[in-house]
Design a protein that fits this description.
This protein is mainly alpha-helical. The chain has 9 helices and 2 strands, in the order E-H-H-H-E-H-H-H-H-H-H.
Length: 230
Amino acid sequence: MTVTSAYPVRVDAQLEPNLSRWLWLVKWVLTIPHYIVLFFLWVAFLVSSVIAFFAILFTGRYPRAIFDFNVGVLRWGWRVSYYAYSALGTDRYPPFTLAEDPDYPAHLYVTYPERLSRGLVLVKWWLLVLPHLVIVGILAGGGAWFAANSDTHGYSWTAGGLIGLLVLIAAVILTVTGTYPRGLYDFILGLNRWVLRVAAYTALMTDVYPPFRLDAGGTDPATTVIESIG
């Protein structure tokens, strides 16, 4: 296992067996309460990210309370997206919480950085990340907007992109056969993982540049490294 596998942003998920054939048709309605809450959370995310920017610029540290809040917002958004149209990987309704829920099948972790570069904070969120934004834009459509504008209430990154198309294909197959093709699921998870890594990097949560690779599957390589050490 290489060091590059242990990226500080971990995105894990488990595909739920026996998914409903038809529930995906109404999940856009069921998630409306989450969309409303997330709108205000993304506004707070924007404000706290600006505060974090200046804190890093002057002190080289990301205030821990702000960091935990912003990770919680990303985590909340990922759970809702996993339930809805970024994956359709579960029929379990997402919890209304910023905290990690070990019982929910979608997880997001970001390792807290003790120190961050005061110089990189000026350029990484718009200049250094440009190659990734181009790739994410091609792969996920709205993902480039999400990664560059994490404050937007339109937090879902599937609109018009490959993720949305693949999830629609998966939904049709699920409706007809009652099964979610595992290979398709693993690929969709890899695309989501790429987008979320870039989102965390542009949100100044790490100085470690996102890898140019598709880590497919529900288990993040960094999680595999941690489990092998433990």
